[in-house]
Amino acid sequence: MSLRVPLFAGYADRAAVHRAEAELDSARANVEDLRSQIELQVWQAYQNLRTAVAMLDSSTAQLKSARQAAEVTQARYKGGLATILDLLSAQTTLANARVQQVQARLDWAAGRAALGHAVGGLKPPAETTELP
Fold it and tell me: What is the chain's alpha carbon radius of gyration, rounded to the nearest angstrom?
C-alpha cells in the first residue's frame, strides 16, 4: 500500500475556493437585485391601485354631479328656461362622466390584478365583486 500526496498543485485548490467565493457573491448579488425588483413592482402596483381607487371615487362623484346637472337642465328645458344646446351639453357631460366611470372601473380591476400578480397570486373572484 502506498500513499501519494502531491507536493505542489499549482494553487489550484486556492483558485477553486476563490472562484467559488466569487460565484457565491455573484449569486447573492443576483438574489438582492431580484428582491429589489420585486419590491419595486409590488410598490408600484400598490400605488397604481391606490390611484385607481381615488380615480374611481372621483369619477363616481363626477357622475353623480353630471346626472343632477342633466336632470336640472332637462327640467329647465321642459319649462322653457334652457335651450336645446344647454340640454345637449348637459347630456354630453353626462355621457362623458359615464365613460370616465367605466374607465375608472377598468383601471381599478387592472390595478387589482397587477397587484395580485406582483405579490404572487390572486384569490378567485367572488360571484359578485364589490367595487370600493
Answer: 32
